[in-house]
Amino acid sequence: MSNDDDLVISGGTAVEIADSVRALVDRGELAPGQSLPSVRALAEQLQVNRNTAVAAYRNLARSGVVVSQGRAGTRVAQRQAVAQEGFAAAGSLRDVGTGNPDPRLIPDLAPALAAAAGRPVLYGEPVIDRDLEQWARDWMTPDAPGNPADVRLTLTSGAVDAVERLLAQALMRDDAVALEDPCFLASIHIARLGGYRAVPVPVDAEGMTVEGLRSALEQGVRAVVCTPRAQNPTGASLSEQRAAQLREVLDEHPYVLVIQDDYYSYLSQRPFHSIIGPGHRRWALLRSVSKFVGPDMCLAVTATDPDTAGRLAQRLSPGTTWVSHLLQRITHAVMRDPDSLALIGRAGAHYAERNASFAARLTALGLPVEAGDGMSLWVPVPAPAREVAERLMRRGWLVRTGYDFRLAPEAGSSRHLRLTVHDLSDEDAGALAADVADAARDAA
Q1: pLDDT tens digits, residue range 12-24?
Q2: Which UniProt keywords are given for this protein, alphabetically ordered (predicted)?
Q3: Are 59 and 15 in contact (CB under 8 A)?
Q4: What pTM does this model have?
Q5: How far apart are CA 35 and CA 434, in angstroms?
């Protein structure tokens, strides 16, 4: 590995200098975290104007190759490890941080698979199956803003795919996007990979905060991603009053893209309240079937304004232009089956009841918790979450800490755990609650 003084950076223009640094990174001569020469030193070394060196580093930062740290200089970007939803190397530990649905409460797909068989679908055919489109329109249009005739539907391979493509058609690298803090893991990944500047908007018991959104808009965000119900990880859902307050703030920014990720939809025990007013120009409401038809059913419906739909279609056009019609037909068959719908209804009630029961257990043990909506429970603890998690590992439990869900985990400690408890027996739930309470007291 080279020292800073040994680096052979070349070039006479900003583009040439940036290409030279990228080549050094690609060859491993510049390692992640290694510092680069100062702007002044680089300009003197290459005999170029200081502004040329500044432009080269700016281009590299926008491409995600380097990170500018102000007076601390410029360094090669680190390859950060990112947490994955639903995955943990649990080993012999009991994993209560997965966020997964209960497989016993997912409808049997066998009858739907048989019903989905039919003639082959060829290139050039409509991208949305006719029967699914009518069902999806009935599902989405009542909650979409404005004139129902102006609502456009797009299918993507799940909610994460939809958010990624929606942001890609609206943002450029280094653009700012408002994200909830704490935040859904996939949204954190999308912002990092896209090179967007994530502006945190705090979340409380009623959802995204008004002052937080106002501050983000004042910082020039070009898009907002909001979870109206069962916010992951907190379980918060927008109240009617909070949604109205957020709409009022957004009324002054009609061209900011507002994405509402209502991923929990059919399972939610809370009413849907929109933050998008009827006059907003750039908006998207998306709903996935993953939480109730199964994570392997990669299908989400996105309702948008016509302009956003056109831009989204352009983002989809270079590759496969449709979600498999087999998946569409299976989804339609499941969502039209009375027994499947009844099971989905029982699933939503089950998750809510188990979360409420576990919250009551913790509260009785001196650790007050309020159950929100969603698959998991957001548990405040009186000590740094990592210290509590370490003590729980010694007791045989693997949990998620709030650090995973923070946009800037290095900014401060987290005092929350996210627990998935809906599949625990009463005996196991009692044991976990006692261990959480004991670990929290020991760490405090």
Answers
A1: 999 999 999 999 9
A2: Aminotransferase, DNA-binding, Pyridoxal phosphate, Transcription, Transcription regulation, Transferase
A3: yes
A4: 0.85
A5: 48
Distance separating alpha carbons of residues 310 and 299, to the nearest angstrom: 19
Q: Which residues is 155 bridged to in the sheet?
A: 301
Strand partners, 285: 260, 303
CATH topology for the 119-336 domain: Aspartate Aminotransferase; domain 2 (3.40.640)
pLDDT of residue 65: 86
Residue 63 in tokens: 């491409």
Domain 94-103+340-443 grouped into CATH 3.40.30.10: no
Q: For residue 387, what pLDDT is reported?
A: 95
Q: CATH 1.10.10.10 in the chain, residues? A: 4-76
- Give the Å distances, CA to CA, from 439 to 239, 370, 433: 33, 19, 10
Q: How far is CA 270 from CA 139, 238, 352, 372, in A?
A: 16, 9, 10, 9
CA distances in angstroms from 332 to 109, 129, 304, listed in the order given: 11, 9, 21
Say if residues 209 and 180 touch (Cβ distance below 8 Å).
Answer: no
pLDDT of residue 64: 76
What average pLDDT does the segment 31-35 reach? 89
With contact defined as beta carbons under 8 Å apart, do 228 and 237 qualify?
A: yes
Maximum distance among all Cα pairs of the chain, rounded to whole angstroms: 75
Partners of 68 in the β-ladder: 74
Distance, in Å, from the CA atom of 78 to the CA atom of 33, rounded to the nearest integer, reads 6
Listed in order, the ranges of the chain carrying CATH 3.40.640.10 are 119-336
What is the predicted pLDDT for the residue at 409?
62
Amino acid at site 296: D
Q: Does domain 4-76 have CATH number 3.30.1370.10?
A: no
Question: Looking at residues 398-405, what average pLDDT do you find?
Answer: 93
pLDDT tens, position by position, 126-174: 889 999 999 999 999 999 998 999 999 999 999 999 999 999 999 988 8
Mean pLDDT of 256-281: 97
Please tell me the predicted confidence (pLDDT) of residue 1: 41
In order of 112, 237, 377, 421, the CA distances from 354 in angstroms are: 29, 18, 10, 7
Stretch(es) of the chain classified as CATH 3.90.1150.10: 94-103+340-443
**What band does 62 get if pLDDT is binned at 50, 70 and 90?**
confident
Measure the CA–CA gap between 154 and 285, rounded to whole angstroms: 10
